[in-house]
Structure formats: structure tokens, C-alpha cells
Design a protein that fits this description.
The protein is globular, with a radius of gyration of 18 Å. The chain has 140 residues and is mainly α. The chain is built from five helices and no strands.
Length: 140
């Protein structure tokens, strides 16, 4: 005779809900900004924004050959440094600050790409995907 247990997942705390709501608001802001840049500055700006919206998750491909040997929800440890580097909000925010204060390099498609990158990171955080531990699991 087998017994079944009803395990209900823990409800998110008010802090978690507030944090994810804030990340979703940021995601919508950066998405709107990326679209605006694409509309104002043409197809190249729009293409780079879309490309950088997708590129951070291409880091999964770094260790694709190790995927069959990893646990469910685990990223191969070899891919973790690349994944974490592409999913830290400070990286595109720092580049955005450099872009804003330097007078030499003013190229709107680069700004659109940074908006797309920040949108990606914000969507990931809003849906509960954060940085990874060195073993490849989601950090709490």
C-alpha cells in the first residue's frame, strides 16, 4: 500500500511579491525604452535591442554537452560564470552610465542593446530566475 502526501508549495512572502513586482515594473520600463529606441533610431537599434533581449540565455550553450549529466534545474558548473556575468544588472547599468557621461561614443543602437539586456535581466528576476551558485543551482 502506498501513501500519498499532500505537499503544498510555500506561498511567497510579501517581500518576495514586492521584489518581483518591482522587477516586473523595471522589465516593462526597459522593454518600452528599447522599443522606443528601435522606433526612433531604426531597424539596427531594434535588432540590437531584440538580440540583447535573447543573448544572455545563450550562455546555456557553453556547456550543452554536460546537460544530460546535470540534475533537474541545474546549470552545468562550467557555464555558471558566463551565465552569472550576463545576468548581473550592474554590468549593463555600469555600461549605461559610461554611455551617458562620455561625449565621444554616442550610438543609439548601443543604448537600445543595453535596454534590451536590462529588460532580459529584469524579466528573469520578476519570474524568479536569479543568479546561480557555483554548482549551478538557483540562489535563494
Amino acid at each position: 500500500m502506498t501513501s500519498t502526501t499532500n505537499v503544498t508549495p510555500a506561498l511567497p512572502t510579501a517581500t518576495t511579491v514586492a521584489r518581483r513586482t518591482a522587477w516586473l515594473a523595471a522589465a516593462l520600463f526597459w522593454t518600452a525604452f528599447a522599443v522606443l529606441e528601435g522606433v526612433n533610431h531604426g531597424w539596427l537599434a531594434g535588432t540590437l535591442a531584440l538580440l540583447f533581449l535573447l543573448v544572455p540565455d545563450l550562455t546555456f550553450l557553453v556547456a550543452l554537452d554536460e546537460a544530460p549529466r546535470t540534475a533537474q534545474g541545474q546549470l552545468a558548473p562550467r557555464a555558471v560564470p558566463y551565465y552569472n556575468a550576463m545576468h548581473r544588472a550592474l554590468v549593463p547599468l555600469g555600461l549605461l552610465m559610461v554611455y551617458a557621461v562620455q561625449p565621444v561614443f554616442s550610438w543609439p543602437p548601443a543604448f537600445a542593446a543595453l535596454c534590451g539586456w536590462l529588460a532580459h535581466i529584469s524579466y528573469d528576476r520578476a519570474f524568479g530566475y536569479g543568479l546561480r551558485t557555483k554548482e549551478g543551482f538557483q540562489r535563494d
